[in-house]
Design brief:
The chain has 15 helices and eight strands. By secondary structure, it is an alpha/beta fold.
Length: 339
Amino acid sequence: MRGMNPVRCSVLGAGSFGTCLAILLAERDYAVDLWARDPKLADAINRHHRNPRYLTDFQLAENIRATSSFEEALSDKEVILSVIPSHCVREVWERAAPFVRPDALIVSASKGIEVHTGKLVSQVLQDVLPPEKHAHLVSLSGPSFALELAQHRPTGASLAAVNESFAIAAQSTLSTRMFRLYTNTDVIGVELGGALKNVIAIAVGVCDGLGLGLNARATMLTRGLAEITRLGVRLGANPLTFLGLSGIGDLVLTCTGDLSRNRRVGLEIGRGKKVDDVLRGLTQVAEGVRTTQSAYELARKYDVDMPITEEAYAVLYEGKDPKLAVRDLTRRQLKSETE
């Protein structure tokens, strides 16, 4: 083995993207502890040097060690990547927080909004971490399917932190020749773009499943960006952020890419499957389902017009026929494009 990088890293979450980021860090000669909730999964990874559930075709390097222990995964780690489903962030980090060193850099790649509280992932982390760690939080978001990134296909993404120096530190740690990371200080915008694009991807998938054509797809995507931006500005985001990688970039990928789980949910619903049957058949988390509820609640709380989100909510949570949802969108009162 080549000389190891002295910076010690941990990845919380052994799903597709967590495994992918562990692979990238290991290729840069970091020693990586990969935390998995399931001890059996951690044991299998260590025995076979493969993840038997995600990215199964990829050999994992010797400098990746899996564990289900927070103490083993986090103690004395200088860089921690949090890559867990957004609805698990609070529960996992309440247990993990005591083991994190005070100066650790924490990079969150979870995309979602907490149901009922309406909090972004960074805000949830601020709830459970002591104040001195808040400045060390960085949000990673952008158009980045784990499979393509693990295959070393060119990928770009955003790193956002209130203090840009910490985003730059994460940029230095994670960037490779094929993984180009850009820094940003608009945490709200970067996180909202990454979360809300999943809602629009479900809606676009419904249109595709109904066979409505490419014009409908493009219209839904574009008007989806408009309502994402409206809510973002209302919450204090910079509207220009939504024209970047974590905004339009991630939106286009998730709405059109065949690897998108959220688009696949919409496709199946549009093709006539019952929502409950589609959700039961998922083998990985489709973040957009829960985020649709959160976004709907935020839109009502802040009185923001989000018609696509409202119709997606009606389909997912109220049993509305997707054909009627599309019909109601097309019959809305005509207005200026800038409204």
